[in-house]
Amino acid sequence: MSALFEPYALREVTIPNRVWMPPMCQYSAAPEGPDTGAPNDWHFAHYGARAAGGTGLIVVEATGVSPEGRISPWDLGIWNDTQVEAFRRITRFLVSQGTVPAIQLAHAGRKASTDRPWKGGAPVGPDSYGWQPVAPSAIPFADGHPVPTELTVDGIQEVVGQFADAARRALAAGFEIAEIHGAHGYLINEFLSPHSNHRTDEYGGSYENRTRFALQVVDAVRAVWPQDKPLFFRISATDWLEKDGWTADDTVRFAADLKAHGIDLLDVSTGGNASGVHIPVGPGYQVPFAARVKAETSLPVAAVGLITEAEQAEKIVANDEADAVLLGRELLRNPSWARHAARELGGDVHVPDQYHRSV
């Protein structure tokens, strides 16, 4: 049997295959009004198509734990019950197709309050639904970005509580897995990296201090997330900086800490915290970082990064470089990628009855 289409169990949740969809923001929620941050018909159709296409696990895009935690005013959020009810429609359909629904809980930190990418992605102000970003230190992400407000210790604890509240709502919305967003230069990543964290209190300086906020978030979410359901953490394994950044060595060390605090799988990406860096992009370019964590720790991992071909994905799992693969852009191009890959590799995948003629 194809390794890519073997089921995968974590705690009491079994994912039907190793073809997973990572969080990819759609920037399509209402920026104001009673439905602010709530998923709508676009989100239902978008995620529903990938579930009908055989994807084993779908991680819904970065979802703000608070209004100011969104990347853009058009992002999803899960800070109120209106949003919870709207998510239930999506999770019910995903489950009906045999797909496990997951959600990424996020706070954008200093990279918040930006426009949609197809509008340029520049920071937006109050006249365009924007707000003042917060961060571990008053350091802007890049030229043209505002100086963020440095979080106080009380402010940090408020955010920790927001993550826990968001996890409770995610459970009520029908999600089986929650993922904490600690990657791509957003708030948790900003605390982890000495490039963006210049604090001198208990949340800055040493490795132990810089990881304190992340682990407090993990503990707060794990405390409210059921013990029979998995909890993921997404990490940028490196800032791609030659010095004064988060490194692959830090990631391996942190993976052990995360496992000890109840994380079940590390979703391994890279970059996003430093502007202007050179990233050697190519097929599977981030897989070695996931493979190293898997080889040097006991924490399961998922790999991401220009994984496009069925045989490529099969080898990653079969060679034990990762426990699953996350296909981003390829699933945007082809919602039924899993079904096509199963046909190529001789694997089994769910096909809706309505599509029986396509088998």
Automatic annotation (TrEMBL):
Residues 4-344 form the NADH:flavin oxidoreductase/NADH oxidase N-terminal domain. The keyword NADP applies. Gene3D superfamilies: Aldolase class I. It comes from the Bacteria. Keywords: Flavoprotein, FMN, NADP, Oxidoreductase. Its cofactor is FMN. GO terms for molecular function: FMN binding; NADP binding; NADPH dehydrogenase activity. The keyword Lipoprotein does not apply. InterPro entries: Aldolase_TIM (IPR013785), OxRdtase_FMN_N (IPR001155), YqjM-like (IPR044152). This is NADH:flavin oxidoreductase/NADH oxidase.
